[in-house]
C-alpha cells in the first residue's frame, strides 16, 4: 500500500511505473501496442487508434492502471496475456512526433520493431474495415512515418482502422481531424471490439511461436 502522502502528489504512480519498466523481463514474450493519435483529441477520426487502445485496456483489465512515464512522454499500462506481457502506450506527443514516444518505450522495454504494434486510422478503408499489415511503408500516415524514422525500421505490425476518405481532396484534413458523426459513432463499439479481438488473437499466436501473415 503506497504512503498516503505520495498518492496525492502522483509520485507513487511514477515510481511504480519506473519499477515496472526496470523490472526483469518476464519469462514469456513481451509486446508493445501503441495507439497513435493526438493527445487531448480522443474523439477524432485521426485518434481512433487511441480508442482501440482504450478498449484493449478494458478487455485486459488495466483501464484504471494508466501511469504517466516522462521518459517516453506517454501513458503506459502493463497487462498479462497468458505467459506474455503486453505494454499499452498512449503517446503524449502530437501525431507527427508519436514515433519518439514509441521508440523510447521500445528501448526501455528492450523490444525490437517486430515486437511493436501500431494501431492507427486508415483513410483508404471505409469505416468498419480493419486490416493487420506486417511492415511496409507509411502510406502517407505521418504518425507511422514518425515511428519508422525513430525506430529506424518499417517492420512494425500495424492494425489499420478504416475511417473512410472524403470525396474532395481538400476535405481530407478536416475529415481526419474532425469527430465521428452520430451515425458513425453507432458503428464504433462493435468496431473497437473486433479490433481488440484481432490484436489479441494475433499476439497470442505470435507468443506461441506461430508465424502469421497480415489479415
Can you describe this structure?
- The protein is α/β, with parallel strands linked by helices.
- It has helices at 4-9, 11-22, 48-59, 98-109, 142-151, 172-177, 182-207, and strands at residues 30-35, 67-69, 74-81, 84-91, 116-122, 130-134, 157-162.
- A 7-stranded mixed sheet has the order 2-3-4-1-5-7-6, sandwiched between helices.
- Strand 2 and strand 3 form a beta hairpin.
- Helix 3 crosses helix 7 (182-207) and helix 4 (98-109) packs parallel to helix 5 (142-151).
- The model is unreliable at 1-24 (pLDDT under 50).
Task: Put the structure in a nutshell.
The protein has 215 residues and is α/β, with parallel strands linked by helices. Helix content is 39%, strand content 20%. The protein is built from seven helices and seven strands.
Descriptors:
globular; alpha/beta; 7-stranded mixed β-sheet; disordered N terminus; 7 helices; 215 residues
The count of strands amounts to: 7
Helix content: 25-40%
Q: What's the overall geometry?
A: globular
Radius of gyration: 17 Å
Overall mean pLDDT stands at 88
Order of neighbouring strands in the sheet with most strands: 2-3-4-1-5-7-6
Distance between the termini: 44 Å
**Percentage beta strand:** 15-25%
Uncertain residue ranges: 1-24
Supply the number of helical segments.
Answer: 7
The biggest sheet amounts to:
7 strands, mixed
Please provide the ordered H/E string of secondary-structure elements: HHEHEEEHEEHEHH
Give the class from helix and strand content and strand pairing: alpha/beta
Amino acid at each position: 500500500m503506497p504512503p498516503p502522502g505520495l498518492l496525492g502528489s502522483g509520485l507513487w504512480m511514477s515510481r511504480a511505473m519506473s519499477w515496472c519498466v526496470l523490472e526483469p523481463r518476464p519469462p514469456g514474450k513481451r509486446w508493445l501496442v501503441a495507439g497513435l493519435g493526438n493527445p487531448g483529441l480522443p474523439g477524432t477520426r485521426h485518434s481512433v487508434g487511441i480508442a482501440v487502445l482504450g478498449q484493449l485496456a478494458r478487455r485486459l483489465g488495466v483501464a484504471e492502471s494508466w501511469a504517466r512515464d516522462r521518459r517516453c512522454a506517454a501513458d503506459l499500462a502493463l497487462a498479462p496475456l497468458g505467459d506474455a506481457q503486453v505494454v499499452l502506450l498512449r503517446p503524449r506527443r502530437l501525431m507527427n512526433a508519436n514515433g519518439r514516444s514509441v521508440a523510447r518505450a521500445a528501448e526501455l522495454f528492450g523490444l525490437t520493431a517486430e515486437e511493436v504494434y501500431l494501431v492507427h486510422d486508415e483513410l483508404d478503408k471505409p469505416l468498419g474495415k480493419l486490416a493487420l499489415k506486417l511492415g511496409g511503408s507509411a502510406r502517407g500516415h505521418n504518425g507511422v512515418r514518425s515511428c519508422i524514422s525513430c525506430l529506424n525500421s518499417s517492420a512494425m505490425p500495424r492494425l489499420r482502422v478504416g475511417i473512410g476518405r472524403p470525396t474532395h481532396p481538400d476535405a481530407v484534413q478536416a475529415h481526419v481531424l474532425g469527430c465521428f458523426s452520430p451515425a458513425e459513432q453507432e458503428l464504433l463499439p462493435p468496431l473497437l471490439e473486433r479490433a481488440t479481438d484481432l490484436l489479441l488473437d494475433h499476439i497470442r499466436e505470435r507468443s506461441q511461436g506461430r508465424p502469421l501473415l497480415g489479415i
